[in-house]
Records
---
Amino acid sequence: MSNTWFIKDKLFTKYLSSEEIQNSVRSLAARINQDMTDKNPVFIVVLNGAFIFAADLLKKVRVDCEIVFVKLSSYSGTQSTGNVLEVMGLDISLKNRHVIIIEDIVDTGLTLHRFLDKVRAMEPADVRIASCLLKPDAFKMDYSIDYLCFSIPNEFVVGYGLDYDGLGRNSADIYKILNT
Ligand code: 5GP
């Protein structure tokens, strides 16, 4: 694919190459292999965006592990409950397990914050987060991203699983929006 990519009504420019991403994923996997030896972790892959990152990362994970896939969606609850996070697909017990959540991108961190509450309520031994991307200037939470490939500026990106209005996920490179 070329250096620019026109998706729907927006122009994107190549930002992180497949090679840079793979190098970073490789070192992340090496750290996870070291940290998770004999811990039999459960990886929770957050769909849809994390599917390519998770596939690349998990192919390099050498420890015995389980992998589950969840979909998160927000809806408006009652006035007292506010915005409610619905979790689909989390159908195994996490009690006393070492859990690693795999995300595509953490922006404000709010979605993950609410999901973390639900995961912690299932009494795991430990919860860690692996994310391909983080926007530190937008991130407002007090938890840390344990395994991170790249910190990026506060700009909209697509590719490597991330979409713009349903399009653009099918790229090995990451593109950022070109503000014209
Ligand atoms: P947060 O709750 O951290 O603000 O939002 C996280 C979610 O917003 C991500 O899982 C992703 O779906 C979406 N998101 C945030 N920034 C971007 C971006 O730059 N590009 C795309 N495609 N999605 C983003």
---
Amino acid sequence: MERKPPSNNRIPELQAPFRYKGNLLAVEGLPVESIAARVSTPVYIYSSAGILERLRAYQRAFRSVPHLICYAVKANSNLAILRLLARHNAGADIVSGGELRRALLAGFPPGKIIFSGVGKTEEEIKDALRARIRMINVESEEELRLIRKTARKLKVQAPISIRVNPDIAADTHHHIQTGSKTNKFGIDAAQTIRLYRETARARELRIMGIQCHIGSQITQMRPYGKALEILLSLRERLLKEGIPIEVVDIGGGLGASYHEGPSPHPEKLARMILPKFRENDAILFLEPGRSLVAESGILVTRVIYRKNSHGKHFIIVDAAMNDLARPALYDAFHLIQPVRKSPTGRWVTADVVGPICESGDILGKARRLRTPRQNDCLAVMTAGAYGFSMSSQYNSRPRAAEALVEDGKWRLIRKRETQKDLLRGEIELI
Ligand code: LLP
């Protein structure tokens, strides 16, 4: 679904991959209802056209400078999604040995994989060095020491990038703000300089980049501008000391639209970043997760019961906080839409809740919708990022199935877990 690049100053809108066709919610023209009927519920459904449109929007927005879009695997780490992004020239931003394995299996070239995270273990560092990934984003002095020791043992040179904590408080939920001095992430500017000097002297280490990541679900572009200025001025200072840095990595964090209306376009981010960046001979890296996949995924769930108690309406569905943790964890809002619009149902204001034994198990509070019937399907929108990847088996609930629509067809990309899967690793030991 290539669309024309903007011919003037207007920023184009990204298309919503899920739309109504008559009364039926459809994805790339396919009725969601028919997929749910085959796979059963709860099921995550993703649109490959939607994901690729967003990847291409990034690639186009930054095409005037050498760059790499490293998808933050944590947002949605399904192998089929990773493979789709790898095939279209994305890199991968990983935060664990498990994500490294997934990224390699999906076909990301090691030279396009970068490794972030405050608590990398020796095992994980070893795996990353053996795989010869592009760079390790170092988050503490002790980590740098361990990487050096590990590289010496393996007789390799470790490519290093230091994650700077720029002390910028991006305007977002406090759980997903990462670039302020009260957060555990990154290293302050003064220490950064000292650690680069140390790195430059160490035979086992090679300086590759400088990085920061200021938070998630960011909709204001100014904090990115400020963060980039800090990275570039540190780079400049080090260059004067004869320490060159090739990669400048501004992290991820661009928001998605959880309500109706357009999401921030990567072009908006490019307009903040590129004028500051252009004079440099560096390669620009970005680490978007949510903005690539959030709007291209929904969680489809079925109504089990409706009830009215003390005058309050509840719609009890078969998906719960173990399937989608965001509303319970961050009080996050996800639009909930009928999979088949009913022109007749009576309007109610109801909480849409799951079967888990916690009052916080709410997918949507006080939603105004037409009363669905039992067995009707509802779609929890904008669930492609941090949906399945944060799901759990709480209450001994098998995790949901996942399906991907591509070229007008859908296929299962993760089987629904079974009761047997839930017992694996335990049943042998009783
Ligand atoms: N790079 C690093 C180092 C990160 O820590 C993250 C996200 C990203 C990139 C990608 O950020 P994104 O573009 O997706 O905003 N579970 C939360 C979001 C946690 C984000 C953690 N770090 C949620 O559901 O809102």
